[in-house]
Design goal:
CATH architecture: Roll
Largest sheet: 5 strands, mixed
Radius of gyration: 12 Å
Order of helices and strands: EEHHEEE
Structural class: alpha+beta
Distance between the termini: 42 Å
CATH superfamily: Beta-grasp domain
Strand content: 15-25%
Strand order of the largest sheet: 2-1-5-3-4
């Protein structure tokens, strides 16, 4: 299966400046797709997941238009060709 990750500006230095990354995996869950991303770009792992392998509190991962926390988290099922967006929270005051 092939998946496309949209990489935010703050993480593009970890993907050689690429805004979109294509990954392939035999699995069909968000966790499988993320593991394929981390295999290609290991430095992204710590920016997206905690040491307990959970999506960081201030990072949103969208599968299509749905936020992954509302669709099963890392167990969210994916269809071939889906787009996944990593969006760090923006804070300010």
């Amino acid at each position: 299966m092939t998946f496309f990750f949209w990489i935010p500006g703050s993480l593009r230095s970890l993907t050689g400046g690429r805004s979109q990354v294509e990954v392939e995996t035999s699995g069909g869950t968000l966790q499988d797709a993320l593991e394929a991303l981390f295999a290609a770009y290991p430095a992204i792992r710590d920016r997206v997941l905690t040491e307990r392998k959970e999506i960081r509190e201030h990072v949103n991962v969208f599968v299509g238009i749905n936020e992954a926390r509302s669709t099963g988290g890392l167990a969210t099922p994916l269809a071939n060709g889906m787009e996944i967006s990593i969006i760090p929270a923006i804070s300010g005051g």
